[in-house]
Amino acid sequence: MNTPDVVVWTLDGRPHEGIDYGTRLVERLAEAGLRVEQVVQDERPPSDAELSAPVHVLSGGTTLATSGVPWLTAVRNALEEPLRLAAQGDALVIGVCLGSQLLAERLFGPGATAPSPRGLEVGLGPVFSTGPGWASYAAVPQFHYYEILAESVARRPDAELVLTGDHSGVQAFTVGGHVLAMQFHPELTVDDVDRLVDHNAGLLDEFGLRPDDVRGRVRQRAADWSTAPVQDLIVTPVRRFLASGEGRAGGPEGVLDGGRRRDVPGHPARRSRL
Fold this sequence. Notes:
33% of the residues lie in helices and 23% in strands. It has nine helices and 13 strands.
């Protein structure tokens, strides 16, 4: 097997009918002209050739990051090689939602994740830059009720909080120059979020949320959604790393709005090096 540019580690579950959590990640990366291999982790482990790929992107999923189910234990074990390569600057590892929580538990130690005190975050919401070189975004897709604890990021001197939010304080972090993790789903579209709400109506009910109310809030923010987050945080870092070996991610301050960058109202950029 030829070594791909990017391996998408698809974790379990579906945001809605018709796609798994890796689908949009594969699409966005393939649209950028990259050779992408998808590995559905609860069906098979990555091959040696896949483990040696230069870029690894961990998807969202439904199983808790701390679960001891066999397939997830195998994922943790398989991640050791990409993370070893990333630590020496020879690979780029990106985690999305559950993928970010898996990275937090591995890199910050047990207990790095916990149930969100604010319950389920679902829909479109803003995330805010914590320093220069990172963009704030007015409407990113969200779907989680576990989150990464801010104090866990402080356990490593080479870790940095780069995006935060009102619901969950850790919305994105880096470790060194070659690991980037985000709690939200930049790869999803507004239509995906609408369908996600319908598909997970039972879960919303468990958290006291009405699907109609959530869809209404999605409609209010839909005009602020853009492809900027997935470009800034996934596609551009991957292409940059493949071209030059640089691992730094992030874009200019502010959010994309009709070709312009602007600050998210009421939330100036905040610096927080934990």
